[in-house]
Amino acid sequence: MIKEWATVVSWENGEALLSCDVKASCNSCASRAGCGSRVLNKLGPQNVHTIAVSSAQPLVPGQKVELGIAERSLLSSALLVYMAPLVGLFIMAGLFQALFGSDLAAMSGALLGGTGGFLLARGLGEKLTRRNEWQPVIISVGLPPDAVRVDTFSAQDGR
After folding, report:
1. Is 84 exposed, middle or buried, given 0-12, 13-18 or 19+ CB atoms closer than 10 A?
2. Smallest Cα–Cα separation from 92: which of 108, 107, 111, 113?
3. Which residue ranges traverse the bilayer (predicted)?
């Protein structure tokens, strides 16, 4: 199970709207100062993803929840997204090269196969996201933001 913390944006009728921060993997590397990838990550947009997850327990905006998704579903979706266009590209490029015998035909076939593989992955992805095992689930729920109170005392108060 792959786990990530999210913040509740709203909860209504058993469905929670959650906000997840996008984290770059560059934050924990020892060579952060001289890394070109870190600089490129800072230049791009800092995205926040919002997802809807079913929750029978009432949640409060600002509350933290731990989400989990099955590793198998994540790996399967990554395999589908990356491999379908790549396989389509190679198959159609080879087929067009064999049929027409020119590099231009192979390039056209590669473009057609890559686009077709992308569209296939997109269509299958929409069908697969309806499966329950592909949906993120709430594993644990943190305290509501107003449930935690911190009192500070100074030496002048005499307490």
Report:
1. buried
2. 113
3. 79-98, 104-121
- Kindly report the backbone phi and psi dihedral angles of residue 34, in degrees, each rounded to the nearest multiple of 5, phi listed first: -110, 20
DSSP 26: G
Strand bridging mode 48-54 / 15-21 = antiparallel
Length of the chain as a residue count: 159
The pLDDT tens digits of the residues spanning 26-79 come to: 555 666 566 666 665 666 666 678 888 988 889 999 999 999 988 988 888 899
- When the pLDDT of each residue in the chain is averaged and rounded to a whole number, the result is 84
| Single-letter amino acid code for the residue at 137 | V
pTM over 0.85: no
Rounded to whole angstroms, the Cα distance separating 110 from 128 reads: 26
